Protein: Ribulose-phosphate 3-epimerase
Organism: Mucilaginibacter conchicola
Amino acid sequence: MERLIAPSVLSADFANLQRDVEMINASEAGWFHVDVMDGMFVPNISFGFPVIKAIKKYAQKPLDVHLMIVDPDRYLKDFKEAGADSITVHYEACPHLHRTIQAIKQLGIKAAVAVNPATPVANLKDIIADVDMVLVMSVNPGFGGQKFIEHTYTKVAEVKTLAANANPNLIIEVDGGVDASNIAKLVEAGASALVAGSSVFSSGDPFSAISQLKHA
């Protein structure tokens, strides 16, 4: 599966958001990764529908919307209408996960589930066949710029093994601390979509940083 880079707009310059969106359009990135945080599921607050609509206005690539919020079912339709091309919900936030995944699919977009670092991959056994993507968090969600958790390589490989028969076309995404030093090993373990925030936008040349991640 082709390696896909998804720059996290949470790390973009919000005073120059259109500029950064257009930079991603012109780059080798495949998606825009959009982190939504509510201050309850994670100890941070990001942005909501108006910002997503603003990104969608200029984006020429799909919006990969990652909901780090409690009770995401309340807002699935709103995020689709704001511009989401895929919605990721957290295993830990969804007591009726199958119902949530089906509700996303009924909106006509990709449905994904994320797992926090302490959540065992085995917990996904009963949902793995129903999702388009699994997002493995390689840091504890809530803040950018955190240190990559080394056990992530093992978790990615476990997801790949779990999906081998039930869902061989599953996309495995990794989010948190991804940079040129670990991306090749993550791809080798089975990841095909890599979220990059600080390693792109904190570099002197974000456009080239995306290219480096694509080919590292």
